[in-house]
Amino acid sequence: MTIILPVWIAFLIAACAIRARKSAREWQNFKATHQTRERQRFYRRWLLEGVVLLDFGSIITIVLLHEKTSSWPYLTLPLSGQLVPKIEISGAFVAGLLSGLAILLLGLWLNFKFRQKSLNVTLGDFESLIPRTRKEAGLALLLCLNAGIGEELFFRFALPLLIARFSSSLIAGAIASTALFGLMHWYQGWKGILATTFLGAVFMTRALHGTSLPALMAVHALIDIFGLFVRPAVSGKFSRRAAQPSS
Asked: What whole-number distance in Å separates Cα of residue 154 and Cα of residue 56?
């Protein structure tokens, strides 16, 4: 096992680096593609690669670590051999969350109402990923869902535990996996890397403090869905794209 762990860590990091570089090259081709069939091929390829690397990679990692915890399926990161106590969701938390969502929706509505350009400002280069047809929308939705599931399982649970088991430092595992999570979004440019690294750090902090993994998966998926579906719908991008040729 002492030999298997470092080899598996090196393999996963190398696989992530190769996929990040490959995605950066493919992204340029994707942005230049206007035919929906070709765009769908990119969606399917990225979905398959994500499932193989992140989902299957996480499962193999958990099996190698012989990870057994009573928190399944509510996985949390163990700290010093103990599960971090879960934080109860209080009424105040729910009220604050709903208030934040209300403010966010109000801001979106005002931007749409007065046609402000601020709605078009993005943290990263992913504008071309917005689906243009129903088939693209279905594949994009699957990408969002798998990103929420696979990336959280991999970067917030499996990889930090793997590095922690090898280095005897959970903090080292958390920092390394967060940095790698940001670099995996290389194709989005430096703004995208910074934004995703920051979000990854926030998610990792919540994981270390006991937020359940399914909750993180759901929030992650919703963020992606918001970026690819809700924001474009509010800003009118869907209607403008519908007028463009898609074949």
From this structure: 9
Residue 83: strand, helix, or coil: strand
Q: What is the pLDDT of residues 74-90, one digit of tens each?
A: 455 544 444 343 444 55
| Residue closest to 59 by CA, chosen among 72, 42, 45, 46 | 72
* pLDDT, tens digit (0-9, with 9 covering 90-100), for 115-142: 444 444 444 556 788 898 899 999 999 9
Strand positions, DSSP E, the chain: 78-79, 82-83
Low-confidence ranges of the chain (pLDDT < 50): 68-74, 78-88, 115-123, 239, 242-243, 245-247
φ and ψ of 170, to 5 deg: -70, -35
Q: How far apart are CA 235 and CA 119, in angstroms?
A: 7
Sign, Cα dihedral of 10, 16, 17, 22: positive
Using the 8-state DSSP alphabet, how is residue 169 labeled? -
